[in-house]
Amino acid sequence: MKAVLKYARITPRKLRLVADMIRGKKIDEALNILKYSPRRGAYFLIKLLNSAIANATSGTSNVNSDLLYVKEIMVSPGSIMKRWRAAPRGRGMPIKKRTAHAVIMLGQKAEKQKETRKKTAKAPATPKIAPSDLPAPTQSGEKSEVKA
């Protein structure tokens, strides 16, 4: 359940910023984050995530798409196209047009099952004293007796 994007014409640093936003999220939540993200890298990752979802749900695999989440997403640098720009005094300044590769892996979370926990034995509660068992207020110097 993985998909690969190669030679995307965006720098890996910019694509990594968007990838960090969806790492570990459920696929519907990740798609919403990418859909409303203003970053350009979201366009590439939407295509990649949709491809991974299609790979997971098609074929003979028995996968519930509601339980899928972004298990792993990696962005690595691709090849660099080198261009030259005119500079003062007849020189040329290099321009590096970077590309990126991205790999996304989807995982399936286990269905939540109700677990019956054994109740642990609690410490016995301290006995409560009724107001009638309390000693009556005394004047200074007198001793009071406590009912047993």
Secondary structure blueprint with pairings:
Elements (H helix, E strand, L loop, with lengths): L1 E7 L3 H11 L4 H9 L5 H17 L10 E19 L5 E17 L40
Antiparallel strand pairs: 1-3, 2-3
What does this structure look like?
The protein has 148 residues and is an alpha+beta fold. It has a domain at 2-86 and 94-108: Alpha-Beta Complex (Ribosomal Protein L22, Chain A). Helices cover 25% and strands 29% of the residues. It is built from three helices and three strands; from the N terminus they run E-H-H-H-E-E. It has helices at residues 12-22, 27-35, 41-57, and strands spanning 2-8, 68-86, 92-108. A hairpin with a 5-residue loop joins strand 2 and strand 3 (92-108). The chain is elongated and about 110 Å long.
Task: Write a concise synopsis of the structure shown.
With 148 residues, the protein is an alpha+beta fold.
Question: Which strand order spans the largest sheet, edge to edge or round the barrel?
Answer: 1-3-2
Q: What are the secondary-structure elements, in order, as H or E?
A: EHHHEE
Outline: elongated
Task: List the total number of helices.
Answer: 3
Averaged pLDDT, please?
A: 86
List its salient traits:
148 residues, alpha+beta, Ribosomal Protein L22, Chain A, 3 helices, elongated
